[in-house]
Design brief:
261 residues, 6 helices, alpha+beta
Length: 261
């Protein structure tokens, strides 16, 4: 009997170890996918959220957690779940999170320094004053589209709440927003009187930016298809202009009816 107990204990320990390793690998895979999606979005590839995958992962974790719970805890959890189901529908609806441009933290920045990336011919590395204590390091794939002299000391619109990501060894802390089509890319122009740190709003969408976008939620990827310039060259979300209140809209030099990214 003693030998059987030892074997059972060892098997359970191994299962626990493999389960933990599997969860760690799943997390690494999700992080790698999120970074790949970001790069694809920057290159104009439209993303479609696959909600069923996230639901499946959540269900797997729930099953794992349930297996660890004692019978009394399970019974208590089942009672709480039953109570939650009985809550009025409007209470559930009030907890739903709206995903649109209000979650994006667009601000005006000024490029203080700019150099070519030491390890990538197509990338610039910029220091941008966004009205904060320290300038942000930003990596932009604009070498083949905008001459470096046109970037120096320039005011730009920057997306400031992306999760920092390494691009060829340099951590990028934001993204310079541009009007873009296959033939041409133009850096967006803030209105006259704009200064570093000015907040960019969208008419009809009160600002509620996340402190930092979670790549797994694909908030920017969800908004990206509706970020475009209109027939006047004004940067818009779903047809509503992106503006600095009291100063005017953000515009593209010439491109109309193209994506903003």
């Amino acid at each position: 009997m003693r030998l059987e107990e030892v074997k059972k204990f060892k098997v359970e320990e191994k299962i626990k170890q493999l389960t933990q390793e599997n969860l760690s690998l799943l997390s690494q895979v999700e992080d790698a996918k999120a970074e790949l999606i970001r790069f694809e979005t920057l290159n104009g590839k439209k993303q479609y959220p696959l909600l069923h995958k996230h639901i499946a992962l959540s269900e797997q974790q729930s099953i794992k957690d349930d297996s660890k719970e004692s019978a009394p805890k399970k019974e208590k959890k089942e009672k709480e779940a039953k109570k939650n189901k009985e809550k009025p529908a409007q209470a559930v609806a009030s907890n739903e999170v709206t995903i649109d441009v209000r979650k994006l933290d667009f601000r005006i920045g000024k490029i203080l320094e700019i150099n070519k990336h030491p390890d990538a011919d197509s990338l610039y590395v910029e220091k941008i004053d966004c009205g904060e204590a320290n300038p942000r390091t930003v990596v932009s794939g604009l070498v083949n589209h905008v001459p470096i002299d046109e970037m120096r000391e320039r005011l730009v619109m920057v997306l400031c709440n992306l999760k920092p990501v390494k691009m060829r060894g340099v951590t990028s802390e934001a993204m310079v927003m541009c009007a873009s089509c296959p033939e041409k890319v133009e850096v967006l122009i803030p209105p006259n009187g704009a200064t570093p740190g000015d907040l960019v709003s969208c008419e009809g969408y009160p600002r509620e930016p996340e402190a930092q976008l979670n790549p797994k939620k694909k908030i920017f990827e969800t908004c990206a298809p509706d970020l475009k310039t209109d027939d006047q060259g004004v940067a818009c979300y779903n047809g509503s202009p992106l503006i600095i209140p009291g100063k005017g809209p953000v515009t593209a030099p010439t491109l109309k009816g193209v994506h903003v990214k």
